Amino acid sequence: MSDDQREVGKDEPEYQRVYAQTLALAERWMDEPARRAVQVTVRAAVVPDLADVADQLPAGEPVVADEGNGPTVAWLVTEGDLDALWLRCVQDFPTTGLWPVVVEGLDEDSLDRPWRAGEFYDPVVGEPDEWVAAADKILGTSAQDRDSAEPGGAATVMVEVMDGISALVLVPAARPAEVPWRLGWAGSANYGLWASDVSAVLCSWEERFGAVVVQMGFDTLWLAVARPPSQQADVEQMVLEHYIFCPDNIDQGIDRDDYWRAVRARIWAFWWD
Question: Are 103 and 86 in contact (CB under 8 A)?
């Protein structure tokens, strides 16, 4: 978590905290060059079984789905130089298939929910070959919207370097967009969006804008965005897509008239009530 994120007081309601952070990041990163970014290939050659690479993992603990009764879906790390580990893992992702995600818990000072409690359900339900159609259905997008995105080689993107990390998980995945699906993440379930739906949307945004998941919580999701929209029509389209994907961003967060700033930032944050 960056210094910008830590400036917000812990006593604020969650939605105020998340969106104050979003606007602070948007103001700072909307037009400036990236403070520090690393070029990352966001396609992995293999998706490992964590049991098969146990001797290669840093000290940590398994994240077990279905409240401890399901498969191991990630590896939680809370000790050591996590900034350096995150950087090494994103750079090694094409060969390891382990994508690092900074994590926070439902409670400010606890990782119990959802990570240690295993509040992940039906991991790997739904198939990636259905995601283009699923994203179009959810967002109301079309092939024209996808084709209008700035070409930039979706497999290689510039990712903002995360720092000040206190906990992260390593998630086996073929691409960052798969992470919610691989986990069986339920953070957006109150709005009828299941893990495969979230990954479908992230897949669309990953390909169109180079947006990759970098942080997750019980019901929060942060993306680093390599190529945020800059043209008015594209910005307006993305304000709509963000609202469809996560209504609380506007209904309980940033005023719609100000939301364009968040869309143009290189960090997108989402929170579902």
Answer: no
- Per-residue tokens: 192: 């009828």
**pTM value?**
0.85
* pLDDT tens digits for range 211-269: 999 999 999 999 999 999 999 999 999 999 999 999 888 877 676 677 888 899 899 99
pLDDT tens string 189-200: 888 888 999 999
Q: Tokens representing 200?
A: 């479908």
Taking the C-alpha atoms of residue 212 and residue 55, their distance in angstroms, rounded to an integer, is 27
Specify the DSSP element, H or E, that contains 172. strand 168-172
DSSP state of 189: G
Each residue of 42-94: pLDDT tens digit?
999 999 999 999 999 999 999 999 999 999 999 999 999 999 999 999 999 99
**Tokens matching residue 236:** 């307006």
* 267 neighbors 221 (Cβ within 8 angstroms): no
The CA distance from 47 to 173, in Å, is 5
Encode 190-214: b = buried (16+ Cβ within 10 Å), e = exposed.
eeebbbbbbbbbbbbbbbbbbbbbb
Q: For residue 78, how far is the Cα from the chain centroid?
A: 19
Residue 117 neighbours by CB distance under 10 Å? 17
Count other C-beta atoms under 10 Å from residue 144's C-beta: 7
- Tell me which DSSP letter residue 150 carries: P
Instruction: Please give the backbone phi and psi of residue 223, each rounded to the nearest 5 degrees, phi first.
Output: -120, 140
Q: Which residues contact 272 (CB under 8 A, 6 or more apart)?
A: 187, 188, 190, 191, 193, 219, 246, 248
